[in-house]
Design a protein that fits this description.
The complex is a heterotrimer. Chain A is α+β, with helices and mostly antiparallel strands. Chain A has a domain of 125 residues: Alpha-Beta Plaits, CATH 3.30.70.3270. Chain A is built from six helices and eight strands; from the N terminus they run αβαββββαββαβαα. In chain A, a hairpin with a 5-residue loop joins β3 and β4. Chain B has 13 helices and two strands. By secondary structure, chain B is an all-alpha fold. In chain B, strands 1-2 form a two-stranded antiparallel sheet. Chain B folds into two domains: 84 residues, no CATH class; 254 residues, no CATH class. In chain C, α1 packs antiparallel against α2. The longest helix of chain C is centred in the first third of the chain and has 27 residues. The model of chain C has no long low-confidence stretch (mean pLDDT 81). Classes of the chains: A alpha+beta, B mainly alpha, C mainly alpha. Chains B and C meet through α5 and α6 of B and α2 and α3 of C.
């Protein structure tokens, strides 16, 4: 029959219309800002610094090696090393940064800093509601430091792998120390 | 005929009575004009938000719901935006015509509301040839579209304007032809008389609206299709749809003039919808005597709202027609069907004197067959033409 | 018949007529004298609309709305389409008038006015008092068209149909199958390839 396609189309949209009132799954709209979609694990926006435990100063993993500062393509990281050394998770004395600034208006979210960091101390965060009234936004060390539990919440698999690797290294260091403390019996 | 039914007429008479006797007709007419502009202006605002929300629901999403409760204050936000936008006129544009075009579009459309009967005794003027006035006024708005396209000094808007005019004059023919059987049935051109001719009930319970006859159904469908084409509405919104690629005749308009164009388009839609309700759906009459407690203007509003919903529904469903498809559809399909509809209507009226038992069924059968055969035949014929492989003249 | 109308109404009617007549004349003169062609066309449409107003003043509603529908809704659009399709460039014709001095123009216009005006003024029709104008109901017009004047109506219909057919035939004949040579931008490699594979 002529017009059959039109009638079928009208029935379909009519069904959409009536269904949208009593069938909440039809409406796939996420009404931001009241509802938000959870970001996926690989989402990344700006970097942040990881600290172990509860103390953002003592537990900060960053050793101010400045690899990320050198590798960053738009050069948005600026680091000033501190002269005092502190022990890291393995007991070795490491430097730490006095000043760690990231200009997030320059940062291009490439994640190279997180890729090259040998200490798993700088990772990519997922916050995107960064809009401000200022023209430049520099985040300092105290803004950037976030705990390892937070890292575990936003990147579960990666955090689990990092935690596993660090625990393995701790175990190896302990085993070596135990082997050194108890000398091989002749 | 209760007080609620006539409440607007009563208010108008009372307010006009407050004025000195010499200017009472003028004041009375001004009250009607003010009332019409207020009601249909508000209707325009309401229709924009209802259309957007309904389109959203049909597309499995919410419509605008941020501005007021359920987004009902969205027209206020839209109006404010339109008013505060900068009114840019191109340097080489024809300033006089550029200014006149939205005015020339909107004024005839406001005029068209003056002959529609919105309720019992609720019409602005009872012209002897009301329908002719309506169609004449509708055809003057095409010149305004040309003015808009030409004055922009932009070849894209000129082409868009020519296409829009071609579309509008093509669809005037089925529009008028589809309403001619109604004039035959009512034997008058005046719209309140047409509404009166549809009063009463056949078989005791079926109202004598024109849509409940074979030619009425076909005529109503033709009228609705031609009406949506006349007011540049989906699926015939080629002049608007060109805004996606190259802007149509609305390119160089911004701010309030753009708002006036949209006002004119929606008001044109309301006017032809009102005419459709009057011609085919029995105007302000209730479908059954026990439903007459709803006032006559309430019935008009309900039918009007149903037709507007139908337009929105069709807009959400159908894709846009291309220009050649559009024009072929008008001239090769709708016009022959409208002529056949006219013949069937005349046959219906001539055969209304048949009194043998089963006459009504025979007449219905005859009317349906006489309409269905050309419909199927024309559709098949043009389907084959459309589905044939196309030859592109310059590509070979 | 209608009772004699009060003097104020008659005077208002006369004022309305003079105003509308002035409007027609202004639009007509503007249609002749404006420099830009599209403005002339729009003023012509305005003149048609003002004529419709005059018909309304004569209580000839059917003729007035038919005038609007046909002249403004179709003929004015025809005029603007003709302008569009033939004059797509800047529409500022610096046309020289037919004669150099304006005296000749005035003389021709005066002769034409006399030739047309004298018979109109001295016609015996104007000597009779105007009958009380009644609005002709559309039904009467329809009946007259279908009974007394059916032959002119059908002849006009035949004439219009033949004109339409003629226009279609002319338009169709002016469009031969032109195989235009499509020139595409070529590079030396493409040209060499086209030489090797002749079409």
């Amino acid at each position: 029959m002529l017009g059959r396609g039109i009638i079928r189309g009208l029935i379909e949209t009519g069904r959409n219309f009536c269904g949208s009132y009593h069938d909440k799954e039809r409406l796939t709209t996420v009404q931001y800002p009241e509802e938000k979609l959870a970001p996926q694990e690989n989402a990344r926006t700006i970097p942040f610094l990881v600290y172990d435990g509860n103390d953002p100063v003592a537990g900060l993993r960053c050793t101010a090696c400045t690899i990320c500062e050198q590798e960053c393509p738009p050069q948005c990281i600026s680091i000033v090393k501190d002269t005092v050394k502190k022990p890291d998770y393995l007991g070795k004395m490491q430097l730490h940064p006095k000043v760690f600034d990231i200009d997030i208006t320059v940062c291009m979210s490439c994640g190279i800093c997180a890729e090259v960091c040998p200490f798993d101390s700088i990772k990519m965060d997922q916050v995107f509601e960064l809009a401000q009234g200022k023209r430049s936004m520099i985040l300092h060390k105290n803004n950037l430091a976030k705990s390892n539990t937070y890292f575990g919440e936003i990147h579960p698999t990666e955090a689990a792998a990092v935690n596993e690797a660090r625990a393995e290294e701790v175990r190896k260091a302990e085993a070596k120390k135990a082997a050194q403390a108890a000398p091989v019996s002749a | 005929m209760n007080a609620l039914d006539q409440i607007f007429v009563t208010i108008q008479h009372w307010l006009a009575g407050l004025a000195p006797a010499a200017v009472q007709p003028l004041v009375s007419m001004l009250l009607i004009i003010g009332g019409l502009m207020g009601v249909f202006g508000g209707c325009f605002a309401l229709t924009t938000i209802i259309e957007r929300k309904t389109l959203g629901r049909m597309q499995n999403r919410f419509g605008p719901n941020r501005v007021g409760p359920f987004g009902l204050l969205q027209p206020m936000a839209d109006g404010l935006k339109m008013l505060t936008k900068e009114d840019i006129v191109p340097f080489s544009a024809d300033h006089i015509l550029h200014f006149l075009a939205p005015v020339a579009l909107t004024v005839p459309v406001w005029l068209a509301f003056s002959v529609l009967p919105f309720g019992r005794n609720m019409y602005a003027i009872d012209l002897d040839c009301g329908i002719l006035f309506f169609f004449a006024i509708g055809s003057t708005s095409e010149l305004a579209i040309f003015l808009a396209g030409w004055s922009s000094q932009n070849k894209y808007s000129l082409v868009g304007a020519m296409r829009a005019i071609a579309q509008m004059i093509s669809y005037e023919v089925p529009l008028v032809l589809a309403s001619v059987p109604v004039l035959i049935a009512a034997s008058s051109l005046s719209l309140p008389a047409i509404v009166h001719a549809q009063s009463g009930f056949a078989l005791g319970w079926v109202p004598r609206w024109n849509v409940f006859t074979p030619w009425g159904i076909a005529g109503f469908a033709l009228f609705m299709i031609a009406a949506s084409a006349e007011s540049n509405r989906c699926p015939f919104d080629l002049p608007e749809g060109e805004s996606e690629l190259i802007a149509g005749y609305l390119t160089e308009y911004s701010g309030f003039k753009y708002a006036l164009f949209f006002l004119g388009e929606y008001l044109g839609l309301f006017a032809v919808t009102g005419l459709g309700v009057t011609l085919f759906l029995g105007g302000w009459q209730a479908p059954a005597t026990w439903l007459e407690w709803i006032p006559s203007w309430g019935w008009f509003a309900l039918k009007f709202g149903a037709l507007i919903f139908l337009f929105i529904w069709v807009r959400a469903t159908l894709p846009r027609l291309r220009l050649n498809q559009l024009l072929n559809f008008a001239w090769k399909f709708l016009v022959p069907l409208a002529v056949v509809n006219l013949v069937v209507a005349v046959a219906w009226w001539q055969s209304s004197v048949w009194q043998f038992p089963g006459a009504l069924e025979v007449r219905w059968l005859l009317g349906t067959v006489l309409l269905a055969v050309p419909y199927v035949w024309l559709g098949r014929a043009w389907n084959d033409v459309e589905s044939a492989p196309r030859h592109y003249r310059y590509a070979e | 018949m209608s009772n004699p109308r009060p003097a104020t109404i008659v005077m208002l009617n006369e004022i309305a007529f003079y105003l509308t007549a002035a409007l027609v004349l202004i639009f007509a003169i503007a249609a002749m004298t404006l420099p830009r062609l599209v403005h002339c066309a729009v003023c012509a449409a305005g003149a048609f609309a003002s004529l419709a107003l005059i018909y309304l003043e004569l209580d000839a509603e059917f003729v007035a709305f038919a005038q609007l529908l046909v002249y403004v809704g179709a003929i004015a659009i025809l005029i603007v389409f003709a302008i569009l399709l033939t004059n797509l460039q800047e529409a500022d014709p610096q046309v020289r008038r037919a004669s150099r001095s304006w005296v000749v123009g005035v003389a021709v216009a005066a002769i034409l006015l006399a030739a047309l005006g004298l018979p109109i003024i001295t016609t015996p029709l104007l000597q009779r008092a105007a009958p009380a104008a009644t609005a002709a109901p559309v039904r009467d017009i329809g009946e007259k068209l279908m009974t007394t004047y059916v032959l002119p109506l059908e002849m006009i219909g035949v004439l219009l149909t033949s004109a339409l057919l003629g226009a279609v035939v002319i338009a169709m004949r002016e469009e031969p199958e032109v195989k235009t040579k499509v020139t595409r931008p070529t590079t030396p490699a493409l040209e060499r390839q086209e030489e090797l594979t002749p079409r």
